[in-house]
Fold Transposase Tc1-like domain-containing protein.
Amino acid sequence: MEATSIEKEPGRRSDSTRDQRRDVQLMQSLGISQSAIATRTGLTLSQVQYAASHPASPKKRSGRRPTLTEAQVEDLIEFITASKEGRRMPYCKLPQALGFAVGEYCIRHTLRKLGYRRCVAWPKPPISEKNRLLRLESSHAHRDWTPSSPGRHTKTWVTRKPGEELDPTCIVEKV
């Protein structure tokens, strides 16, 4: 019984598989020494010792189950990434919009686990000839504005993953 070991890091062997641990237990029950088992299987002596003293199949993970099911998580991601409204919706309003009976911290934790973060939307103007002319007109009309003049002075927060900064649903169009 020869097992191949794939190097993950220098000086570290790959984890033993369930079948290798089962083989170790079988060989030990046949009276083969642990050092002989290690040379035959290609495992380290500590891996053989661990396999001999623990069950071949690991126990089911203990702990609290996730509040959201996989289907709910998929619905959440689909809702957020589908539109600007979904990207900009605060975490506290997402459960109501989707009909989930969870809190905003559950939503936040789930999204963070999947790599989504709340970030300020990048202000990027849409580039078209019509909008270019509108911007030029607006700049001429408001040449004398001061910092206290009326205008948009708040940040728009969106939910996105790293690398989605320029996604059309993640930017604020300014004209």
